[in-house]
Amino acid sequence: DAGVIQSPRHEVTEMGQEVTLRCKPISGHDYLFWYRQTMMRGLELLIYFNNNVPIDDSGMPEDRFSAKMPNASFSTLKIQPSEPRDSAVYFCASSFLGGPPGELFFGEGSRLTVL
Amino acid sequence: GNSVTQMEGPVTLSEEAFLTINCTYTATGYPSLFWYVQYPGEGLQLLLKATKADDKGSNKGFEATYRKETTSFHLEKGSVQVSDSAVYFCALSEVSGSARQLTFGSGTQLTVLP
After folding, report:
1. Fewer Cβ atoms within 10 Å of its own Cβ: the N or the C terminal residue of chain A?
2. How many other C-beta atoms are found inside a 10 Å radius of the C-beta of residue A63?
3. Rounded to whole angstroms, how far apart are CA atoms B112 and A14?
4. Residue from A16, A22, A20, A19 nearest A4 by CA
5. Residue A59: CA atoms inside 13 Å, Cβ hemisphere, count?
6. Is residue B44 pLDDT above 70, yes or no?
7. Is A25 an 8 Å CB contact of chain B?
8. Of the given ranges (A3-12, A96-105, B23-32, B38-47), which has the lowest mean pLDDT?
9. Cβ atoms within 10 Å of A95's Cβ, excluding its own
């Protein structure tokens, strides 16, 4: 079975540019999470969806960040405009209602560097 | 609110040494507890879990016991290998309405030397 698939794996961009990160969750999973990982702040939950509907976006840092899930097999996290402090590894994870709470399946992450 | 406190790292051990990584938690209800592992350049993956008090989770030689009286879930392994070098995260989850969020600890970097 394919796991959670994220793209791109690495992105280097300049300050002010738009960045779009993509995620394909595991088929049949109805929860999707976006996390950010930095040395300073560790793992932070940005937003999560249930059945394509955003449930909690309180972790989204500011209006420059937006996330969408147009269908059950695709989600995007967009940063516009990007800033150097957005440099981090962004993880997507998915899970399903029938599984134990907290058992998430993570993608390999998208490492973003904003110069 | 919920929180997880992990032993500060980094931890460096020789191969075949005994490993303990401490984890304590604060929760309002009765959470499920997890250890996740992150190998270099990869995403997190579930290592083991325990869903109620006194449960012992185990996998790949790692064990952790859910201790409600001490609110702890310490990770142990009797004999570590070089391939165990990774970052280990303790986490908890409570089901509250439709919320299925994990609260993670800060992670503990483990390096095992040959």
Report:
1. N
2. 7
3. 37
4. A22
5. 21
6. yes
7. no
8. A96-105
9. 24
Average pLDDT over residues B31-50: 93
Q: Which of B100, B104, B109 to mutate to test the interface with A (most CBs of A within 10 A)?
A: B100
Hey, what's the torsion of the CAs at B83, B85, B87, B93, to 10 degrees?
Answer: 40
Task: Count CA within 13 A, CB hemisphere, residue A26.
Answer: 16
Query: What CA dihedral angle connects A55, A60, A66 and A71, to 10 degrees?
Result: -30
**A3 to chain B, closest Cα gap in Å:** 11
> What is the C-alpha to C-alpha distance for residues A42 and B50, in angstroms, rounded to an integer?
23
Radius of gyration of chain B (CA): 14
Q: For the residues of A1-49, what is the DSSP string, one character each?
A: ----EEE-SEEEE-TT--EEEEEEPPTT--EEEEEEEETTTEEEEEEEE
Sign of CA dihedral B61, B59, B28, A56: positive
Local structure of B105: helix, strand or coil = coil
pLDDT at A34 over 70: yes
Does position B100 have pLDDT exceeding 90, yes or no? no
Q: Bridge-partner residues for B11, per DSSP?
A: B110
Query: What is the distance between the alpha carbons of residues A105 and A107, in angstroms, rounded to a whole number?
Result: 7
Interface membership of A70 toward B (CB under 8 Å): no
Evaluate if residue A6 carries a pLDDT over 80: yes
CB spacing of B93 vs A102 below 8 angstroms = yes
